[in-house]
Amino acid sequence: MADHLLEVCDLSVEFHTAAGTVKAVQNVNWHLDRGETLAILGESGSGKSVSASAVMNLIDMPPGKITSGRILLNGQDMLKMTAEERRRINGAKIAMIFQDPLAHLNPVYSVGWQIAEAVVTHGGPKDKAKARALDLLRRVGIPEPELAMGKYPHQFSGGQRQRLMIAMALACKPDILIADEPTTALDVTVQAQVLALLEELQAETGMGLLLITHDLGVVAEIADRVVVMNGGCIVETGNAAEVYRNPAHPYTRKLIDAAPGKGAMPEERDRSGAPLLEAVKLQKHYGAFHALKGVDLTIMPGETVAVVGESGSGKSTLARAILRLDDPDSGSILYRGQDLMTMHPRELFGLRRDLQMVFQDPTQSLNPRMTVFQLIAEAWVIHPDILPKREWKARVAELLEKVGMKPEHARRYPHQFSGGQRQRIAIARALAMQPKLIVCDEAVSALDVSIQAQVIKLLDGLRREFGLSYLFIAHDLPVVRDFADRVIVMKSGQIVEEGPVRQIFDNPVQPYTQALLAASLDPDPEVQAARRIAREELQQRIPA
Amino acid sequence: MSVTDIPTKTEPRERGAVSAWLSMLWADKLAFFAALFLLIVVICALFGPLMFGDLATRQNLRGRNAPPFDLERGWAYVLGADALGRPLLLRIIVAAQNTIMVAAGAVLASAIIGCGLGLIAGYSRKRAAQWIMRLGDVIMSFPSLLLAVIVLYMLEPSVANIIIVLAITRIPVYLRTTRAEVLEIRERMFVQAAKVMGASDRRIVFRHILPVVLPTLITIATLDFAFVMLAESSLSFLGIGIQAPEITWGLMVSQGRQYLTTAWWLSFWPGLAIILTTLSLNLLSNWLRIALDPAQRWRLEMRGRKNG
């Protein structure tokens, strides 16, 4: 029994809510050894975070309740300990890092103070706390650690903040580090660096690393063993590479099949003829920040153009400029040869129908106080010439069926649906306008992998059915690979590389594109291992 | 926990919207009785002066400060009598009209004007927005009682003028709240989505932004109701509010003040009427906030089912 560092046996947790008792996890068993990386993989709502919360004593009781099970740390049952004993373990023996480091760093203290505080809280020597903090900052790769000690959390980038969190977590040399979606909010290149750092630190200290994630790529990159969860139960557990190659459970198989980036890349299209939309030399400043530095772009009818880039590259600004949500400072946007920038507002109103947008977060982009019917029919209220009122009901039903939902859903409100269903509603709303071009701004990045695959399939089907064009903004390269005809790579407001999807993925010319491709994670552990070697070579060639 | 599919309930649309709302009201017992009480107050306000106007103003010097719960003089004196021997119960019923008129008038006027200006100030980024906000600051920094004194000295202290004065002083509350909320909501994605569809500014403001702001405003308005009632009584106290023989609850409270040690009931009963009215409004607005929010409405629908 005592040979595992941390062991969870038969753990069941319930939550009492107004809608009844929810069994968050049922009879969950897993264990973690010294120097090992265990990944808990699952989609949202699978209960993947609950057992880790139970380990950290973070479950609010009530409404939560641990109904059965034991959590053994070095053979001792933590659930039988007093609150005082638990507190001594948290931080000192088991540390945790979270998805959003900004929310977990106190904005009014300097980071040096906060890390030193973490050392002192757990009985470290006061006089050496500062030196230890400096050590830690240096170890997690913060540039100019002496200066960084006096800085405040908002002065660091997202990746650096995650490094700071890691430094704080390591302050007391814990035996176990729990990382809850540590890289979900980060760009791919930064994600790769943070994962590499975690791996290095683990090798150095021999701690056990428990990684909670929804991303098969992260599992492939770093995990030794994997626990797959669905609906509060463990469906499969085993060696990461083994599970990927021979998934035993249908759910695991479904999850692996849904991972993007495996399909055949589309053939190059004929690009002669008049373009549907053309953007010429778009410029946009936000104060002193130069967000778009002369971007050119053409979209042919029926074509899917993907714009990829890291956060801050200007890809969303580009989308908003094309739809004139934020007017660019200079440049022109030609839609079928007409310049949208100089157009009279009344003519622009007519064109609004042709250019539609699907937003990243469907929870935000659907008005919570409108029914699905009202949401979809709003298009026809605004543009009464599309459809006479008596046909609205039938058309809404038709659109809902087209996006894979039921006509009776029309009476419900957005909060009664899951994230994937909401995104379908948003797509139905865009289709109600009978558009020619749909701009998808990270339209699938907030969705679970399996749902992501469904939505992409839906978009692809609609493209064929209606001859739609898409401008597909994404940070996730594998998704783009399956779906786009052309890829535009952006970096700090400029287009770095542009070409057919096959050319970009198979023969990237620019080092930035190469770095981006090398950093994206493949769900196959073997491919990932090869990619890692390639990445290391690349890093040696172009420092920083 | 991700709610994928809440079991479809056959929505009670067939039964008609009215009965659906009534059953939701019945689900919250406190709100139900609050609504009942407010209904009684409104009936008093509408028909009180017609039915009891004469009785309530008839003086009876032998019954000065008659104590409550004494049925010898008849049912009208069950709550006692005031300093001139007039029956308190009837006076409260009659006073309901002026009180509700002043309070509702002032609250409605200030809420509508303040909300309208707040929507403009929050939604447009033009200079008009600046002007509106500075105007709000001016009203805020000007002592409201002083403003009332000046206006009511110059104009005749009639019900309409009192409503105007009270409304002006309360505008900034709605103005600022609305503007702050609009500034946040206008950046939300669903407003952007409406813009992409080509929705007009009017549609965005009234269809997308206003419904989200409204619950907050309703809550403030009900709280303000009590404030306005008391403000009106302090105007009456200064002699520039409602003039006798017209009566309001606030005026009755301030008239009874000098007898507080010997005849507490003079101030107590009208005070109680003010408290109960405000409390009822609060309970009802709380219910309304839940009933208007589609994401919260199930609480009422569920409870309704369990009880009946």
Description:
The complex is a heterodimer of chains A (544) and B (308). In chain A, helix 8 links the parallel strand 7 and strand 8. Chain A is globular and about 70 Å long. Chain A contains 22 helices and 20 strands. In chain A, helix 7 (158-170) runs parallel beside helix 8 and helix 9 crosses helix 22 (525-541). With 544 residues, chain A is α/β, with parallel strands linked by helices. In chain A, the strands form 4 sheets. In chain A, strands 6-7-8-3-9-10 form a 6-stranded mixed sheet. A 6-stranded mixed sheet of chain A has the order 16-17-18-13-19-20, sandwiched between helices. In chain A, strands 2-1-4-5 form a 4-stranded antiparallel sheet. Chain A folds into 3 domains: 34-57 and 88-258, P-loop containing nucleotide triphosphate hydrolases (Rossmann fold, 3-Layer(aba) Sandwich); 274-354 and 437-452 and 461-505, P-loop containing nucleotide triphosphate hydrolases (Rossmann fold, 3-Layer(aba) Sandwich), CATH 3.40.50.300; 365-434, no CATH class. With 308 residues, chain B is mainly α. Chain B has a domain at 97-302: MetI-like fold, CATH 1.10.3720.10. Chain B contains 11 helices and no strands. Chain B has helices at 17-27, 29-57, 88-123, 127-141, 144-154, 159-185, 189-196, 201-237, 249-256, 265-292, 298-307. The radius of gyration of chain B is 23 Å and the shape is flat. The two termini of chain B are 29 Å apart. The A-B interface holds A 15, 17-19, 22, 24, 44-45, 323, 325, 349, 352-353, 355-357, 359-361, 364-369, 371, 378-379, 381-383, 408, 411-413, 415-419, 421, 426, 429, 433 and B 1-6, 8, 11, 188-190, 192-200, 203, 207-208, 211-212, 292-295, 299, 302.
